[in-house]
Amino acid sequence: MQKRLLSLLLVGAAAFLSADAVHAVRVVTPATAGTFGTITYPGGTVPADLVLSDQNSTVYTEYTGTQLGVDAQLNALFSRPQDGTPGTKCERRFGLWAGGDWTKARDKETGGRWDSNLWTAMVGGDYRLNDRFTFGLGLMYSYQKGNTAFNRGRLHDNTYGVVPYLNVKVTNWLNVDLAGGYNRVHKERTRVSITSISTNPNEIKGTVNSDRWFIAPFLNFTHNVNKLGFLGRVGYSYAHDHQKGFRERNNNLYTSQTVTLNRAHVRLQAAYQWKDDVKPYVFALYTHDFTQKKQGLLAETPALRALGYTNPESHRNKNTWGCGAGIDFAAHERWVGGLEGMFKKNADVRTYGATFKVRYSF
């Protein structure tokens, strides 16, 4: 049974890895090309003075926003205290929990420079069927607010979602987390094009909805030596965000677009059982993005740079490294919780975050 379960998980992960295609955005704009001519790229043709605002904000911003949104949910979900966790006293079958995540991303050194704050809140409950299987369901809401400096714009996202999950204890040193989720994202984008900056600096606003879903299987390897506890976490996440077409207030028309993510994750953690109810820990993170630089954006050339175009993907790579620290505690036989903070870096992009968790068992 255990070998069959592991085989199914590995086969499933391999199948998702094969789905590595990302559809480029197609932008339909007015025929007027402004004073800078036009630029043609794999998704279509846009006025050159709108490339920084239209093309990058509808491809690169949505791609990065999907990354941040999915990661925040996985952080809040997988950091939840669980029954039977070393250092806790929770042995009951039912549990209610709450988790939250704050993420700040700063991308000010690239051609797609922008920064944002993302707040994510989750509540949920689970039932431990037996010593091996725990089923649960989480509800989430997130709000993202940021500045897109490359087009003097702003972004606001409101996201609602549902996240079912399953934990399977395979052996005393191995357990499996499997989570999936569906999100409804309402996006509001404000920008100023290069032409309007010099002629009429009025903001251009557009709103659009997207459907986002993801799945994430993770293997958790644990080992304890006296008061030291070690965790090795290896997993994979697949995400799909389909954004509907929309029209800006100046009548620029955007057709629908799809962003797809395939990412591998590794977390190595060491904890110390300081007291019976307190356990501080440190960890290191690594993420490999199989879909980085596959968004259909135009490659940089001297001629395009002279027009003000910079491909933000050229300033990022597939590898993200990070580290952090946290503390778990058991305040009561029925109450457990914890806090952690982290830092991640990918080329010119830096991400800061904090996660909290609390659980009541009965």
Radius of gyration: 22 Å
Task: Catalogue the unreliable spans.
Answer: 1-43, 46-55, 83-90
| Separation of the first and last Cα atoms | 30 Å
- The geometry reads as elongated
Q: Report on the biggest sheet.
A: 12 strands, antiparallel, barrel
Explain what the structure shows:
The structure is a single chain. The chain has 362 residues and is of the alpha+beta class. It is built from 4 helices and 17 strands. A 12-stranded antiparallel barrel has the order 4-5-6-7-8-9-10-13-14-15-16-17. A 3-stranded antiparallel beta sheet has the order 1-12-11, with no helix packed on it. The longest helix is centred in the first third of the chain and has 28 residues, at 51-78. The chain is elongated and about 65 Å long. 43% of the residues are buried. Mean pLDDT is 78; it is low at 1-43, 46-55 and 83-90.
Topology:
Elements (H helix, E strand, L loop, with lengths): L1 H17 L8 E2 L9 E4 L2 E4 L3 H28 L15 E14 L6 E15 L4 E16 L4 E17 L4 E18 L2 H6 L4 E22 L2 E16 L2 E2 L5 E2 L2 E16 L5 E12 L12 H5 L12 E12 L4 E12 L2 E13 L1
Output the keywords.
single chain, 362 residues, 15% helix, elongated, alpha+beta
How would you summarize what this structure contains?
The chain has helices spanning 2-18, 51-78, 194-199, 302-306, and strands at 27-28, 38-41, 44-47, 94-107, 114-128, 133-148, 153-169, 174-191, 204-225, 228-243, 246-247, 253-254, 257-272, 278-289, 319-330, 335-346, 349-361. It has 362 residues and is α+β, with helices and mostly antiparallel strands.
